[in-house]
Amino acid sequence: MSPSATNSTVNCNSSVNAQLASLRGQSFMSTAQLTPGELTGLLAKAQEFKATYSDPATKATAPKPLTNEICSMIFQKRSTRTRISSEVGMHLLGGKALFLSSDDIQLGVNETLKDTALVLSRFNSIILARVYGHKDIEELSSLATVPVINALSDKFHPLQMLADYLTVKEHFGKLEGLTFAWVGDGNNVLHDYMLAAPKVGANIQIATPVGYEPDQDVVEETMRLAKIAGTKVVMTTDPIEAVKGANVVATDTWISMGQEEESKKRLRDFAGYQVTNKMLENAADDHIFLHCLPRHHDEVDDEVFYGDRSVVFDEAENRMWTVMAVYASLLGKF
Questions:
Q1: What letter does residue 204 receive in the DSSP assignment?
Q2: What is the average pLDDT value for the chain, to the nearest integer?
Q3: Cα distances (Å, whole numbers) of residue 95 to 7, 57, 66, 321
Q4: Domain range for residue 31?
Q5: Staple partner for 161: which of 148, 192, 213, 254, CB 3.0–4.6 Å?
Q6: 277-305 mean pLDDT
Q7: Residue 187's domain is classified under what CATH number?
């Protein structure tokens, strides 16, 4: 790398680090708390980490800013991508991650959640938790004396949003002016998608069956943000209307963990929502397809899922680079 390129990289890093300085010592519960600058800064930092740590020429000598930092990862719900990306990401930055399943720790069961939060804070630099109820992660954050990361709750999934938006930015080179479409359940991932779209200057078009709409408080906040940003929000029950002209088409599982008993009813209610090439004929010519996984055939057919427009495995990889950006930002170490 030439000296001028090195100086340019340093200046870029300094600028991004300044954008993220306000996150130091904070917890990360949802996209709602991020300013537009913090959101774009996290994506830029993730891109920096990806360029450095995925390149064999620089990976071996890459800095380890989180050396001696420890993260306890509490998983009430099983996971593949969240666990692996969070654990490997901490390792790449020089830190260590400790996995705690529901067999190891049960929030508020064997001891009060307050006691657990205070004890974990003595041993760790940061806590990451994947929980059922959002109130659990909020309470953990309010009681812990170290930053807490929401790795999924029934209300929000901000780490997934970051990975998805990074994937879109990589593909199109921008986020501003794009149109996102969501087809399926009005769930936790969608909530963060909605809150992020106006913050990056993007439009969002959402199709959900009746009774599966996103939470009203998230809808209202998204509408407020979109009015300020001058972006568009469309809410419909028609998947064709939602994908019309969209650059990005995303869906998710229709049956999340804990909803298995509702599976037959949900499959009936979501009839007509499977993403197919026929549906995507209504999207923009340059559209891409996202799914945060795990995927079931009812949600998207094989032709789309494994097709040229699908970026789901880039999306899965980006879970690691984005959580690394969150770790570094909350700990203030780059």
A1: E
A2: 94
A3: 27, 21, 5, 15
A4: 3-157+320-331
A5: 192
A6: 97
A7: 3.40.50.1370
